Amino acid sequence: MSWFKELFFGQSTAHSILMLCVVVAVGIVLGKIKIRGISLGVTWILFAGIACAHFGMQVDREILHIFQEFGLILFVFSIGLQVGPGFFSSFKKGGITLNMLAVGIVLLGVVTTYVLHLVTGIPIPTMVGIMSGAVTNTPGLGAAQQANMDVTGVADPTIATGYAVAYPLAVVGIILTIVVLRYVFRVDMKAEEARAQASDASQESSARQLSLRVTNPALNGKKVGVIHDMIHRNYVISRIRTSDGSVHMVNAETILHTGDEILVITSQSAVPTITTFIGEQVDLEWTQMTTQFISRRILITKPELNGKSLSQLRLRSFGVSITRVNRSGIDLVANPGLRLQIGDKVTVVGTDQAIAEVEKKLGNSLKRLDHPNLFPIFIGIVLGVILGSIPFVFPGIPQPVKLGLAGGPLVVAILISRFGPKYKLVTYTTMSANLMLREVGIALFLACVGLGAGGTFVQTIVEGGYKWIGYGALITVIPILVMGFVGRKLCRLNYFTLSGLLAGSMTDPPALAYANDMAGNDIPAVGYATVYPLTMFMRVLCAQLLILVF
Fold first, then answer.
1. Same domain, 29 and 164
2. 174, 511 Cβ separation under 8 angstroms
3. Residues 306, 307, 312, 315: what is their CA dihedral angle, to the nearest 10 degrees?
């Protein structure tokens, strides 16, 4: 049985792979356990690793370090690919207020952490680990470990221990704080939902169909292309019914006359302006009047179309009308300057034969979408590692600041997912592929962190580490209580949006799940998604700066 002992307690390559897989498997099984609907999810992998290491099932430090860093890179890079397209647009309109409140939560957490460091005398690396656990931010933990390694040249196990101690109560604490705010402000859930629906701006950029009768005499006899230049709004005129009752497709050369009835696709915010400019709204059933035309959604799957604008494709030459582009579940108005991306769904209206020709041009092959685009992933990681290794010198900071193996790939992933299509770089991955990459990365990272910290975990807790639970609770509760009050009282945020904001500022999916269940709508998810990209970036950056500066 010596081979069995060597397999579980030795130092061979087989032992390392076996232990990593055992820890991940056990953690995933435990992650399915829920208490009152709350689960720690993949964080159980960390605790499974701690338990295995505590009982002597340890892995070679060098192997752990390699798997840990590579897992972290996969995790943050896949997050960057996901949030990149919405990162810059999240600063528009109401998103600025939400993001500033989220930044306030992040910075207040940093201040609370530093004050606790001064009061308790706990080393900054340990406090940053506690902070990362208190805000349930795993990339921040990885960034802190990387920054500490760059500064000292040795790993500090108390960073992971602090994270593991503070994390469980943080998951519960965030949810309890959301509940407390509800009762402090005496939120009437039905009234809040009605208020949210009345002021819902989530449909501002999404497409809406509008039937209008042309009554503006200034438009009589003018071509559609000329009319588009007269009003600076995103809209598409899809079909027209003339005075003789015939229905036609519309292109730039189509001439409008007063009395004509047209089908317009535009954004909700542009409806009043376009209605006033063109004429009056009418109630028409276009599907019954245009039996010769059909509407179909076609997938963009040809790589050569990635980044091209609708005007460049010249699809109207096929005798069809492009009315909408569905991207990530949102319908966008198909204006000529809109640049297409692999995975977009284009709504095409025309005859069956014409649509078949357009289908050949655009691809519409699900099989192509299922095939992974590995080049942008690996070239992105290469660029991310290079960027993360560049030292930036700032006055007053003794050590050069690096984005590290967490920050570098995250920044590059955000940039290439946002701007890649413009330069013909296909960055599309299916949601399942992105989730697989992310989950494998975080599983490897947490397993390695747990196995690395488990040997001293119990001893650290016994010798005073249990106090870290209370410190973590303060870092969790103080920032979201303060900024929750500011958001509700001063910024007049809807409670559902505020709940999503608080969950997103803590990058905490269980809190979002609770908020969604409580609200019974997707308003918390919108708030969460609005602040998540910037918050994730700030968490990674602040974790490093605390160690490098102090």
1. yes
2. yes
3. 40
Instruction: Answer yes or no: pTM beyond 0.70.
Output: no
Contact between residue 135 and residue 72 where contact means Cβ atoms under 8 Å apart: no
Which of these three, 343, 368, 393, is where a domain ends?
Answer: 368
Question: Can you tell me the distance from the alpha carbon of 124 to that of 110, in angstroms, rounded to the nearest whole number?
Answer: 11
**Are 379 and 497 within one domain?**
yes
Instruction: State both tokens at 190.
Output: 């039905």
Cα–Cα dist 260/241, whole Å: 6
Listing DSSP states for 121-138 in one string gives: ---HHHHHHHHHHHTT-H
List the structure tokens of 234: 């995103």
Helix (H, G, I), strand (E, B) or coil at 349: strand
Q: Please state, in angstroms and rounded to a whole number, the distance separating the CA atoms of residues 434 and 78.
A: 6
The number of CA neighbours under 13 Å toward the Cβ of 82 is 20
Identity of the highest mean pLDDT range in 122-131, 173-182, 287-296? 122-131
Q: What is the C-alpha separation between 296 and 317, in angstroms, rounded?
A: 17
Per-residue pLDDT of 108-126, as tens digits, reads 999 999 999 999 999 999 9
**Burial class of residue 357 (count of CB atoms within 10 Å of its CB; 0-12, 13-18, 19+):** middle
Q: Which of 368, 399, 417 is the last residue of a domain?
A: 368
Residue 83 pLDDT more than 70?
A: no
Query: In the β-sheet with 235-241, what is the strand arrangement from edge to edge?
Result: 247-249, 235-241, 261-267, 207-214, 279-281
Residues of the domain holding 321 = 207-368
Distances (CA, A) of 276 to 138, 215, 221, 534: 52, 10, 18, 38
